[in-house]
Amino acid sequence: MKIAFHGAARTVTGSKHLITLKNNNQILLDCGLFQGMGHVTGQLNDYFGFDAKKVTYLILSHAHIDHCGLLPKLVADGFDGKIFCTAATMDLGRILMMDSAKIQMQDADFSNRHLREGEEMEEALYTDEDVTKTLSLMKIVAYEEDFKIDENIRLKFTDAGHVLGSAAVHLTINEDGKSTRITFSGDVGRYGDLLLKSPQQFDQADYILMESTYGDSLHKDLDPIEDMLLEIIENTCINKKGKVIIPAFAVGRTQELLYALNDLELKGKLPDVPYYVDSPLSSKATEILKSHPEVYNNGVKEILKVDHDIFGFKGLRFIESVEESKGLNQDPRPCVIISASGMADAGRVKHHIRNNIGNTKNTILMVGYCEPNSLGGQLIAGKKVVEIFRDKHDVKAEIQSIKSMSAHGDYEDLLEFLSCQDPALVKQLFLVHGEYDVQQNFATRLKAHGFKHVAIPEYHQEFEI
User: Fold this and answer.
1) 418: nearest Cα among 123, 266, 191, 84
2) How far is the C-alpha of 141 from the C-alpha of 93, rounded, in Å?
3) How far apart are CA 317 and CA 24, in angstroms?
4) What is the location of CATH 3.40.50.10890 in the chain?
5) Among 79, 344, 387, 449, which one is most buried in terms of CB atoms within 10 A?
């Protein structure tokens, strides 16, 4: 049996891990879009490193676009097998992939209408028709169900606590009378998350593919998030009469922000300014999360006893049309705008940043991980000039960051996730979904905890297991 790493290898995006069995059946774990990789992003998304037609099964850990965003391209390139995921992942995947197709087509159209001499026309990676075909291949598997994929492969999902529907993937593969247990962590959530339950324990594995996004970081305590939001909104909107622009992933981060703002209102502290969620996708994702109250932790369930809508508060408005979105940039009044994408590399938020980055009254607030080459990553790094839609912009707005708002666990969370394992029985632990320097530090920490065989795969590297 072989395993190859065709994405999220020494980087945090484009998750794709391919297991090839001796009978040539292939299991692909995730098929994510590369995001925020600068000028090479398009090239990375155009080339899988394997033949889509030869993939037998696909197992999807969760619906974030860096894990599911190239599924429609995989299908367009010839994959026609089953896609296994949880029910909530299917619900979220539907809206995320449709939105991704729409954004790609819109961005390509925008760029093509502003072509400069010598530049080539851009094309979207896939269409909404490709998404529809992809959805028809999806098969729902419940958490903790011992699911038989075929005579040689069994699958079990456990809750990863990352976003609604997220799962760690556990495979039992039989070859030549030998059973091999492989665990893919997907993305691991926080223990003590604002909204969701903590990650579940799981059975002993022989091989583990482990995410490592924050493998050398400790998040600050979650409690001050409301205080930091309040301070930034008061300083920008009340004192400076400016706007707060918040790039936020439509799934997870937007709902956490709304939950925190709603709690400020419950405490009588929420500043009286307009709050906009300018992302039709975020609106749909919020409704899906409302329809799955079983995923909430006990703290949220207690608040639901006194507040039936934990994502709604005075002054909040969801923006749908493009015309309304454009109108926000023409309105000079102070406000808070929450918009996708979280790395600020696509979608409506990129237009909001372009229109507001040159004004010292405004604040751009980053609330999650950004790949260093992404627009959000450049802003966090303190760049004074950034390129947006091929034009240079001076960064005059204040740049703030709430680093503790992350759906990814820090190194203590990751070690807690692995605490159910006997390190001596793990034959190899592969670190994925992390920057290389972070992974090196986390590998040292893992070895100190008894995991003696830790590998950090390179892009397209293959291992015999």
Assistant:
1) 191
2) 15
3) 52
4) 225-401
5) 344
- What are the residue ranges of CATH 3.60.15.10 in the chain? 2-217+407-464
Distance between CA 404 and CA 407 in Å, rounded? Answer: 9
Residue 329: HSE in the Cβ half-sphere, 13 Å Cα cutoff = 18
| Alpha-helical regions (H) of 137-247 | 225-233
- List helix spans (H) across 20-144: 41-46, 65-68, 71-76, 87-113, 128-136
Among residues 431, 438, 432, the alpha carbon closest in space to that of 372 is found at: 438
Q: What angle do CA 166, 47, 348 make, to 5 degrees?
A: 60
CATH number 3.40.50.10890 is the correct assignment for the domain at 225-401? yes
Q: Tokens 């530090």 map to which residue? A: 441
Angle subtended by helix axes 436-448 and 411-418, to nearest 10: 50
- 187 within 8 A of 30, measured Cβ to Cβ: no
Matching residue, tokens 């996730």: 417
DSSP assigned state of 449: T
Number of helices and strands in the chain (H, E): 14, 22
The token duo for 396 is: 């005059």
Strands 363-366 and 275-278: unpaired
Instruction: For 2-217+407-464, give the CATH class.
Output: alpha beta
Q: Which two tokens stand for residue 106?
A: 């819109």
Nearest-Å Rg of the Cα atoms of the chain is 22
Q: What average pLDDT does range 178-199 have in this prediction?
A: 95
CA dihedral of residues 331, 336, 340, 346 (deg, nearest 10):
50
Confidence of residue 294 (pLDDT cuts 50, 70, 90): confident
pLDDT digits (tens, 9 = 90+) for 303-312: 999 999 999 9
CB 228 within 8 A of CB 235: no
Per residue in 26-65, pLDDT tens?
Answer: 999 999 999 878 889 989 999 999 999 999 999 999 999 9
Nearest to 70 by CA among 38, 101, 24: 101
Whether 198 and 222 have beta carbons less than 8 Å apart is answered as no
